[in-house]
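Give me the fold.
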Amino acid sequence: MEKLITLENVTKSYNGNTVIDDVSHDFFVGEAIAFAGHNGCGKSTMLRILARLAKTSKGKVTYHKKIGFSYVPEKYPGTDIKMYTYLKTVAAMEGVPISKVDKLIHDFFLEDMVFTKMNDMSKGSLQKVGVIQALMAPHDVILLDEPLSGQDTDSQEVFISKIKDLKKQGVTVFMSCHEKHLMDELADKVYVINKGKLGAQ
């Protein structure tokens, strides 16, 4: 398998609290990886390190090829912009036809909210907007922080189906999640973060 990202003795601390502790690991192209563990164990921090959104306190992260990232945070930020305006803007930046955006809005049952300001949307609906943004123009790696948080069952099944399609296309997937159902359906490997260490489940 082709190496994608290598962590070498990576440590990350916040205000003296170590959340990732001396982790060394190779991740490979096309894998679907789930990070599990209790709240606050470092799952989100691990995703942010992999996505170059957080610097390590110690250690080294090596990217073995040029990588484009799509990142969906657990708490997707609301704005004063209408949902459809926002997604159309992102689509224009990514060179994606608006028909693809319309299809994803339909698939995730958000047609009734196209003119709703994102500030007025629920956490679950905002999470769907984040997922739509990531799916409309998927890059080499997609990182999903608690992607099913607040989503209804039908939307969860749509999400699982679409991520499976991305896996078939060779997209590498990293997830932080609690849902065993999601890990069983999508993850090739599950790693539990406990006391800053990465352990295979």
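The first strand starts at residue 3 and ends at 14.
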